[in-house]
Amino acid sequence: MLHYKKHVIAEDAPWVVFVHGAGGSSAIWFLQIKEFVKHFNVLLVDLRGHGRSKHITTSKEVRHYNFEVITRDIIEVLDDLQIQQAHFIGISLGTIIIRNLGELAPERVASMVMGGAIIRLNVRAKVLVAVGNFFKSLVPYMWLYRFFAWIIMPKARHRKSRIMFVNEAKKVAQKEFMRWFTLTYELNPLLKYFEEKDTGIPTLYLMGDEDYMFLPAVKYIVKRHTNSYLEVISNSGHVCNIDQPQEFNSRAIKFLCNVSLQSLPESVDTMPQLAAV
């Protein structure tokens, strides 16, 4: 089972589950925990091969990872803790896992907060994936990871996010990195399916205004899907929970509290501004 850490404030409090991206770990949410535990029970998981979930063995049947295997790892933790339903918050590739959870077990997902959401791969992203697949067996994987981090988060203000993710990626074994990289072969058909199918699950997209690779696709998708909202965080790149943690926390908490109260507004723009939390 995945390694996890939980913070329980009350038995009847709603749960929030944090899902990190590829190469990260639950440590990337260190700027969120303090604020979220004021309102919710919090569950942080380390995906297989990441953080303290390195012990998970891979059977012959799942030698090559796919999104269903990784998603069911999270469902197994929910079952073990007897969490019937929760809000889910993800960053980067973690948003794809959450969206897939909404497909496999929609009754378990009260809402989704998608930070730096990956909705569609633009031409630059497709080229990046192709380059990675070509060189993955020829160069050390950390060279590729540093290169990807710089392409996706290029500005000086993204430096903290880049360093955080590179440092976490160093803890992932090369063989494990290769297994995760095989997921790129699934991305295009899976993302196309997600784009065409509207789950209706309340979803808030939190995107940095400098997330040039993925923000345009999110702007498009929120116009097509019901119960989907977008908030753009200024002076922030792809990893907006680290670039602008106060904005990320306040907007996400406001949204989740509204969902918990079953009082979603017609538009995020009509929500009253939250005081700093």
Structure notes:
- The protein has 277 residues and is an alpha/beta fold.
- The protein has one domain: Rossmann fold (3-Layer(aba) Sandwich), CATH 3.40.50.1820.
- It is built from eleven helices and seven strands.
- It has a seven-stranded mixed beta sheet, with helices on both faces.
- It starts with a strand and ends in a 17-residue tail after the last helix.
- The relative contact order is 0.15.
- This is Hydrolase, alpha/beta hydrolase fold family.
- InterPro entries: AB_hydrolase_1, AB_hydrolase_fold, AB_hydrolase_sf, Epox_hydrolase-like.
- One of its GO terms (molecular function) is hydrolase activity.
- Keywords: Hydrolase, Membrane, Transmembrane, Transmembrane helix.
CATH topology name, in short, is: Rossmann fold
Beta-strand portion reads 5-15%
Helix proportion range: 40-55%
CATH class: Alpha Beta
Largest sheet data: 7 strands, mixed
Distance between the termini: 34 Å
CATH architecture: 3-Layer(aba) Sandwich
Mean pLDDT: 86
The radius of gyration computed from the alpha-carbon positions, rounded to a whole number of angstroms, is 18 Å
Give the neighbour order of strands across the main sheet.
Answer: 1-3-2-4-5-6-7
Number-wise, the strands total 7
